[in-house]
Amino acid sequence: MAPLLGLVFLLMIHGVYGQCDWGVSYGSSNICAIQGSTVTIYCTYKYPIEYQIMKAFWTRTNGCYADLLMDPEYSQRLQYLGDEQQNCTIRLSHVTQKDEHMYYCRFITDKPDGKWTSAPGVSLTVTDLQVESPETVTEGDSVRPTCKSSCALTDRATFIWYRNSQPLTERRDRNNQLLLQSVRREDAGRYSCALQEHTYISPAVQLNVMYPPQSVSVSISPSGEIVEGDSVTLSCSSDSNPPAEISWFKGRMFVGSGRIYSISKISSDDSGEYKCKSRNKHGEKYSDTVMLNVMYPPRNVSVSINPSGVIVEGDSVTLSCSSDSNPPAEINWVKGGTFVGSGRIYSISKISSDHSGEYKCKSRNTLGEKYSDAVTLNIKYPPRNVSVSINPSGEIVEGDSVTLICSSDSNPPAENNWVKGRMFVGSGRIYSISNISSDHSGEYKCKSRNKHGEKYSDAVTLNVMYAPRNVSVFINGSGEIVEGDSVTLICSSDSNPPAQNFSWFKENQSSSVGSGQSFSALQSGRFYCEAHNQHGFQRSKAVTVNVMYPPKSVSVSISPSGVIVEGDSVTLNCSSDSNPPAEISWFKGGTFVVSGRIYSISKISSDHSEEYKCKSRNKHGEQYSHAVTLNIMYAPRNVSVFINESGEIVEGESVTLFCSSDSNPPAEISWFQENQSSSVGSGQSFSALQTGRFYCEAHNQHGSQRSDAVTVTDAPRNVSVFINGSGEIVEGDSVTLICSSDSNPPAQNFSWFKENQSSSVGSGQSFSALQSGRFYCEAHNQHGFQRSKAVTVNVMYPPKSVSVSISPSGVIVEGDSVTLNCSSDSNPPAEISWFKGGTFVVSGRIYSISKISSNHSEEYKCKSRNKHGEQYSHAVTLNIMCKLIMVQ
């Protein structure tokens, strides 16, 4: 499943629909969403407290009430985020235009009249994205394609842009515009947009980029050497949109139009640089120049100097010889009348005054030679060997006079400026300071400058001696520390030489508490330092150290003290020691109840009885107080009588009544029988020996209360069963059982039961038993019932289901041990006899044969017999196998 889109369209406008204590509230009644996104509909509901929510769900119709979670179109996309108490929020993912509906929340309670459907509901509108952009744009301009939707998107929406269906990973923005700055031709294409983590992509629009000519070049045909009288064609190629017009230039002169420029019967006058200009409405561009070179002897020989103008020592100088000839000429250089080099260019790096003189070049080819006019090199140089001297030398003390002198070598002579650090302080070769102070300490240097350059001297230092000043204390970290930690104080000062001795003091203490530039403070207080050197000392201002510690000595006091009676006003006060002051929380049992140092309870009730403690907390820790108990005294209430078992008693016996009540302190109990003024007993329980209506009264020092009366009645007793005749009968006969009881009024209803069966087997005072078992009866009147003890009915019958089993089963081999077992069903139990063939062999239920042999092979059966009859089993056959003996 695609990840949930982090885009929720909400307008938090409350609309409450309902009446009295019923209602539903929506975060917004109208929601607009982008197709394919996820929508959260925030919802809460309320109902009377005596109702219980059985189900809360959402539906599309206000009448049919179909649960959307049961709808296949919604079941995989709808998530219920609420609960069954008050929250009915849902989330719907992958929305489409088919989801545009009015949605309603409905909840059902445990009462027939407790059903509610919100009306009106929440309207969901689903829309798509559209790109707005001009069809054409000029290269180099900026364009802002815009991704639009009819929904109001949140500031958190992040857009993804596509060109020709490919994502622009470098073009992702948190608004709905794509900024294309300095558009290039590569930016042309079809643009579409989408939201991040969302699969829906808008329809694409075309962007066409117009651009001026580029890649303009010229080709020459034929290539190679060109001789006077040849025909030459120049071709211009360029890339532009729309196509460009072509113009031709020789040097800067226009010579023709069209992509092709042809010259027939070329001459030396046609020699030169040619280029084409490609132009459309968006711009123009020239090609690089191409040279048409026609063969002829040297002419127009000249020398140029680079750089032109004044030449400074150390510069690099290039002499260039130019000439017009074909084929190209060989170039030789002479200084005065001496040969110094060959080639069109003669370079001198790091020129010096030795290179001064007249220079000229000679241009020569097969058709002739020619000298250039002479040029002169005149070398200049900037300042050098710049230095500073100090007068007087040695140590300088505040109040002295000092002179600085600057010397340098330069041509022309240089101007001198003085700087301290980077700040200009004076001009001239000499810089004087009278009555010097520590403010003049620093590095000084002079700058020597002429029109050819400048140079600084090395720096010299003026070090002015003075006593400590600006003494201050710096706290490493915060001035707040936790109890048990320490904070480091650092003493800083301005002095020359630097202060070596530091002393630390605590305000209001005369002796020092430490020495050295740093000091570890372990306790609260205000501290300062003193800095010393040989020229004096100075004291800093004091700084404050504050020691923080967690709460301690947390305790609770109760006001008023002593006995607290229901209806009193009680105040609990929490005290603790901490820095910074602590926040106080109160707990009843283990449950938070309130904050603040004082917890007041007006009109206290028994519900407030409990252990209370407070928690004192600051950022350094927390501590609980010991628990204190509020024991609220109140008069008896909820007095009631409980009867142990039933309220029926049997003559000569008693029934126990119990009195329960809620009171503090526990109540004393008195018992009364209705219509009697004096009590009939006391204590929590009372034994009633006669019928009647009884009640109890509970009382303590705060009051008393009487219970409702209960009734003690007389029910059936001495219930027993009498067997008419003997309890033994022969199968097919029956025996009559008679139920007797003693009750007032006489029992009219009798029920008969067989032990281990839950339902009755008969009714009436007598019952005919046809089978064995233990039977009992129950006698009933309007005051109750009693059950008799069970009696046994024993049905006699002759043997039946007589059968024989052989152990072990399977093949029997000579030498095995075999056991025959006779089973039968009879009452009383039968005597068993065994027969081999027709011959009696033994008595007893089991017949065992050890080391059986082939002589035991035969048919066997058993006879089961009691005084009511006998029965034989079916015959079984013992087939004894011989044991094989291997002879070697």
Short description:
This protein is mainly beta and 888 residues long. The protein contains 1 helix and 87 strands. The two termini are 82 Å apart.
Taken from the alpha-carbon principal axes, the silhouette is elongated
Low-pLDDT ranges: 1-18
Number of helices: 1
Please estimate the helix content.
under 10%
Give an account of the 3D structure:
- Helices cover 0% and strands 58% of the residues.
- It starts with 14 loop residues before the first strand and ends in a 7-residue tail after the last strand.
- Strands 45, 47, 48, 50, 51, 52, 54 and 57 form an eight-stranded mixed β-sheet that branches.
- The radius of gyration is 61 Å and the shape is elongated.
- The protein contains one helix and 87 strands.
